[in-house]
Specification:
Length: 309
């Protein structure tokens, strides 16, 4: 694998994460430049996306690079039976960096093993979503002023939600407590529970999304129940509406509480929360441009881009 690929948050050390946060803060102050002049980035999306693809493309455009790619694999030779390996090898002939989303867990890792061109994983099945994690951590830092001594409550689909899996792993470098709120069918997978136990990361598991839990939280990370990951749609129907955050539930919450959501939402956050100053999900998505600018530069090995350096 090319060392500059970012396919999992497990590839990033605590210092890598802190460096990426510092670079994201720089790009928030200086979003437009010619840092990527002459560079071409491919965005290959084998699964639907709004935010991730468009914010990666915005990030490249604002840095003066160019973008090629697709958002509908049905319009590519994949529909004629071309393998992922061949697609990646072909696109590598054209570009300096590949950003890819795929429905198969491990697809980005596999891609990084068949090409020298750096890969950024934009989501692989229910596995990981490292660029979402970087913008999540940047959002946590911006709203809390720190990454330690926080209680992070994750709510909803903790089984299939790749964003919560990545966030848990990345935040394990910091002093945090997790509260996992989900029904038994969608609880945090055992491998992550075992990871917390092994690394002495404090956590609680709850089936109830109670006011008491809300009032102890610094971050509430809501998630959508991922219909597309269910093989049994009857089971999806049974669990899809179990957790819903309403504005009245926030009445006695901490002043510093912020509500995050990777989006898209379906109905797990009521529209009446949107005007609450504690709702942060739209700003969170905007932070994605800056976090992804930082990740693109890292994957391309571009350093010393800060003005005055
Ligand atoms: N958060 C996220 O991955 O959104 P999209 O599916 O719209 O890219």
């Amino acid at each position: 694998m090319d060392n500059s690929s970012i396919v999992s948050v497990n590839d990033l050390s605590k210092q890598d994460i802190l460096d990426l946060m510092a670079d994201a803060a720089y790009f928030e102050e200086h979003p437009d430049s010619r840092i990527l002049d002459g560079k071409i980035v491919a965005t290959l999306f084998f699964e639907p996306s709004t935010r991730t693809r468009l914010s990666f493309e915005t990030a490249v455009n604002r840095l003066g690079g160019r973008v090629i790619g697709f958002s509908d694999p049905a319009a590519t030779s994949t529909s004629k039976g071309e393998t992922l390996k061949d697609t990646i090898k072909m696109v590598s002939n054209y570009v300096d960096l590949i950003v890819m989303r795929h429905y198969l867990e491990g697809a980005a890792r596999y891609a990084s093993e068949v090409t020298e061109t750096p890969i950024i994983n934009a989501g692989d099945g229910a596995h990981q979503h490292p660029s979402q994690t970087m913008l999540d951590i940047y959002s946590i830092y911006k709203t809390q002023g720190r990454l330690d001594d926080l209680t992070i409550t994750m709510v909803g689909d903790l089984k299939y939600g790749r964003t919560v899996h990545s966030l848990l792993m990345a935040m394990s470098h910091f002093r945090v407590k997790f509260i996992f709120v989900a029904c038994p069918e969608l609880q945090m997978p055992e491998e992550f529970i075992a990871f917390c136990r092994k690394n002495d990361i404090p956590f609680e598991v709850s089936e109830e999304f109670s006011r008491e839990i809300i009032d102890r939280s610094d971050i509430i990370y809501m998630t959508r129940v991922q219909r597309e990951r269910f093989t049994d749609l009857m089971e999806y129907e049974r669990v899809k509406d179990l957790y819903n955050l309403e504005n009245r539930m926030l009445d006695t919450s901490r002043p510093n509480l912020r509500i995050l959501h990777p989006l898209p939402r379906v109905n797990e956050i009521s529209q009446d929360v949107d005007d609450n100053p504690k709702a942060y999900y739209f700003q969170q998505a905007k932070n994605g441009v800056y976090a992804r600018q930082a990740m693109i530069c890292r994957a391309l090995g571009i350093k010393d881009f800060k003005e005055g350096k």
